[in-house]
Description:
Distance between the termini: 40 Å
Number of helices: 28
Radius of gyration: 25 Å
Strand content: 5-15%
Largest sheet: 4 strands, mixed
Helix content: 40-55%
Structural class: alpha/beta
Number of strands: 9
Bound molecules: zinc ion
Amino acid sequence: MKFRVVLFSMALPLLMLAADPAGGVDAASMNKSVNPCVDFYQYACGNWIKANPLPADRSRWGRFGELQQHNENVELDIIQGAAVSRPNRNAIDQKIGDAYSACMDTAAINQRGIAPVQPLMDEIRAMKNSSDVTREVANLHKRSISVLFTFGAGPDAKDSTKMIANVGQGGLSLPDRDYYLKTDAKSVEIRQHYVEHIANMFVLAGVPREQATAGAQLVLDMETMLAKASADRVSMRDPNKRYHIMTKQELETLTPDFGWETYFKIIGAPEFHTLNVSNVDYFKQLEATLPGTSIEMWKAYLGFHVLRTYANLLPETFQNESFAFWQHYLTGVPQERPRQYRCVSMVDRSLGDLVGQKYIEQTFGPDAKAQITSLVENLEKALGQDIKTLDWMTDETKKAALAKLAAITNNVGYPRKWRDYGKVEIARNDYFGNSERLAEFQRERQISKIGTPTDKSEWSMTTPTVNAFYSPQQNSINFPAGILQPPFFDPRRDMAVNYGGVGAVIGHEMTHGFDDQGRKYDGDGNLRDWWTAKDGAEFEKRAACIANEYSSFSPIEGVNLNGRLTLGENSADNGGLRVAYLALEDALKGKKDVVDGMTPEQRFFVGFAQVWCENTRPEEARSRAMTDPHSPGQFRVNGTVQNMPEFQKAYSCKAGDPMVSANACRVW
Ligand SMILES: [Zn+2]
């Protein structure tokens, strides 16, 4: 099937509107009573925002969410078809169909009660000493239950061809370390609710209320200790601060109380000699504080993490309690998503490359791939042009930057190789067992990479995902088929709108290779400083302008964005939009048709902005301001266009207008 067939079979009227071949921008979503030079986001998105209040089961709802919902309906069709019991189903249908059926079978899940986790809970309850703790931490990690620290495989930052072992900070439950450490009234209230939630989970697991309440406090105490030892998000963004190669012996010396050899053995790590300890200080601090902790504290902490991770695999009482705290209280969502979609997203998360293969057959034709590939090439040319003409960079660094740009690998639609899940057994009547086997499979697959050559073609997103990514160590930009649809892209649509939509996304991912993190890696994906000292300082000066700009934005009263946390994404937005603009100007070759009363440049900017129309609950906005490296849609639009003279020219904005920054920032 060709790409466009699915566009017409879509249930969502809004997307059909966007797919209208005569159409360009989505005029119905605009609020033309707003002056574009005053608030461009409201101008481009005002009517969409009014017409699309938050659905009851969403904490945030925007164009990404709409398209993701559409993709999930396509996946639901595929998976439900695969689930129909019939002789001679192929292996893909058996796995995705039965994984889904098992997830939907709430009667069986409720009937089994807490029995599936009981053996693990009993083991934890029987712990007596620190070697028992080591063993249980390893047992939990094997099941992908995140406690105490993280352990896995990743490319060596300074030799991206090699996969090495990594240990890092981890084991918190709340969204960020600051949730444990801040003393304002809201943070205190969140912790009180959190302790109540932990106690409720213990009670559901059969612990008497009084003991559950005491245990809940121990969990909070333990996690607060881990939070204090953890570095904040901004400092963890610096790849140089995350790179400390040590021998196993040095790690043992750092934390002599933790039996690393036992841990590596239980978890099944292949033999290795050195590893990366991403935050050495974290382990130093644990060594100073953890030996004083009681075995009761460990029992409470590990026990809660089992219940928390498995809540969705247990009877509905656990799911409801989990929803009440994590979604309803923390993000403001009144209602849980319908179970069928939760099961679809479970299948997508755990067997994504199987659903992905079938998804591609239905939705992504060679035409779309060819068009996107040529768009990517145009954008690359534009970024090259942009680098060559920068006035703040010396020729020496420009040469290195152009070499890195030329080395970027472009992956469009789907990965070159589909993941093989051959060994995992999926049973139609065993939701818990399936999930455990899948978690162990992923874990084993991950860990077995230690000491092997890096597979640079591997993807970190499934193909139906509405997103894209740049991988600094692969030096690749990757565009899943899921995002290559309206409102981002339509092969028959006005070119200016495509450049503003998917063009800006492509530019964004490319610019990540040159943002404050990406610039520290070379074209081979190695952490290596290829900048002259002067150019590095010039870059940092310009990046600081962007950091300051976004720190001044406030998504909800009393909360500001963190310009340092969002610096990479904001730099990518700014650079990406400029590069897409340059590519459009090149492609227009001077042909400036006016459509719907708009010049191509105006349609380009509206096309860009309309990707970001959204509504967000205040709870979610607060949480994201602390944790999300991306800015909210409003600032992704207004924060970017106010830096661009090209935008101001397109709308004849004057100095002093809110969309004309007096201190316009520009890196790329
Ligand atoms: Zn990004």
